[in-house]
Amino acid sequence: MSTSAPRGFHYALYSYHPHRVHHSTEEPKDNESESVAAFFRKEATVDGDFSLTCCRHNLDSLGLETQVRDFISRRLSRGAVYTGSGNVSSIEIQDLSAPLGCYFSLLRVNPMAQAVGGSAGAASPDYGRRFREYVVCYLCDREGVDLLPFRTELDNHAQELQTLLHQENPADSSQVTSDVVSHLQSWQKTCLFFVTRCVDHINIKLPFLLYSSLCCIPMDISSTDKTCSTDDLNRFVNACGLTALVQAQPQITTSAEATSAAPVSLMDFDPLNETAPATATDGPAQGTRQQQAKVTVGVSPDACTVSSSTSNRFCEEWAVALRSIPDKDNPSVMRQIIENFKLKANQHMNTLKRLLRNAETDHYMLYRAFVFLETCGMGQVLLAAAIKEAEDTSSVDCLEVCKALEEFMQSLPPPAQLEKMNSTTSTT
Question: Sheet of 50-57: strands edge to edge?
């Protein structure tokens, strides 16, 4: 059954019925043992014996739906469709000049999960031993839109669909409720265009939000704007976060700390000593350790508020790049900019680690590390992350180098004063 959809974005939901292989109850020999993944691959591909029924789609024509179904069938026959994590591929479609981008994932639903009271007694004898299975496809033929950078959001959307399918009637898996249809119709709005909505609503506050997200500072996010929900903001923060900047080691906490555990932050102290409101950006790192307060983010139809005014040159350049995109209706371009800046931050961290390692035995490399921290645009964030990693790994030599760099950076004047001194020197 077909329904209308925004131009360029489509979906298809198929009911998948593999003819299961009946296995004997005998214990397998040592050389016959197989993994769980191999078992599911084997039972899905034996003789290609399965059926695929379309439950719902909004493709423009039945011929297009048939070609999509053929593509999914070929993937299923090779055992290349898995649960939990979907795949992104391209489908060559007749009469289309460009390939059709396709995300697809296998959803396995336990029919016994929704049995209530004695209703399960009327089921067939093998009712509880079999799953209902679906294949969901999200398709895009809009030029310049790539689904691959959004695979995490698409996986989450597919898992939410699986939860809704738990509530379906197990007697007829080809029929779906209006809740499932509404969820399918919202996939591009939820998984792709949250980026454009957040950039548009956060606007001039974007550097402050990017800084908090980059440092993994806990945030309290709320929104009263229907066009940019709290879920949208949470997705945006997660997309911009860089938890891999520091590989934190497990830490022992007291019982009091365990009862009020806060999210792990790469910045467990304020690099700008921001105990009072501050407006300076990319300032000198301060060595005072203190608990990092949560950042409050609020979005209303009229404005966006961010409780922290801390940022740096790296995040300001990041915000400018996001806000200056000519094609603001293309979420892939914005997401690619986000991924490029996250990659750049990782490269900066790797460069600093190499310099710190060499600076343990070479004073000139210590100077080069200092110059790098001053010129990269995010020196205080990198140094704080390096100190945290050195403390977690008990690297005494690296920690001493970091402390020396921290003292150097503390001795520098604030950026505004430093810029004024440079301009005065140039005029004289």
Answer: 50-57, 9-18, 132-140, 100-109, 87-91
Non-local CB neighbours of 128 within 8 Å, separated by 6+ positions: 111, 112, 120
3-state secondary structure of 408: helix
* Rounded Cα–Cα distance for residues 126 and 67 (Å): 34
Query: Burial level of 178, CB count in 10 A (0-12/13-18/19+)?
Result: exposed
d(CA 313, CA 118): 64
What single-letter DSSP state applies at residue 83? B
- Strands of 180-291, DSSP E: 219-223
Q: For 45-81, what is each residue's pLDDT tens digit?
A: 544 567 888 899 998 776 888 899 999 998 888 877 8
- Measured in whole angstroms, the distance separating CA 300 from the mean position of its chain's CA atoms is 24
132 touches 176 (CB < 8 A): no
Stretch among 162-166, 174-178, 377-381 having the lowest mean pLDDT: 174-178
Classify strands 295-299 and 219-223 as parallel, antiparallel or unpaired: parallel
Cβ–Cβ < 8 Å for 225, 301: yes
pLDDT one-digit tens code per residue, 384-405: 999 988 888 888 999 999 999 9
Kindly list the distances between the CA atom of residue 348 and the CA atoms of 285, 329, 344, 408, in Å, as whole numbers in the listed order.
17, 30, 6, 19
**61 Cβ partners below 8 Å, 6+ apart?**
none
Determine the longest span between alpha carbons in the chain, in angstroms: 94
pTM check: above 0.70: yes
Instruction: State residue 187's pLDDT score.
Output: 96
User: Strand (E) positions, 225-345?
Assistant: 295-299, 304-306
Dihedral angle of Cα 27, 30, 31, 36, to the nearest 10 degrees: 70
User: Tell me, what DSSP letter sits at residue 262?
Assistant: -
What is the spatial distance between Cα 290 and Cα 130, in angstroms, rounded to a whole number?
54
In a 10 Å sphere around its CB, with 0-12 CB exposed, 13-18 middle and 19+ buried, how is residue 291 labelled?
exposed
Number of other residues whose CB lies within 10 A of the CB of residue 66: 12
Mean pLDDT of the chain: 77
CB atoms within 10 A of CB 155: 16
| Phi, psi (degrees; rounded to nearest 5) at 133 | -125, 140
Burial string for 375-411 (b: 16+ CB within 10 Å, else e) reads ebbbbbbbbbbbbbbbbeeebeebbebbeebbebbee
**What is the rounded CA–CA span in Å between residue 238 and residue 243?**
9
Helix (H) or strand (E) segment spanning residue 114: none
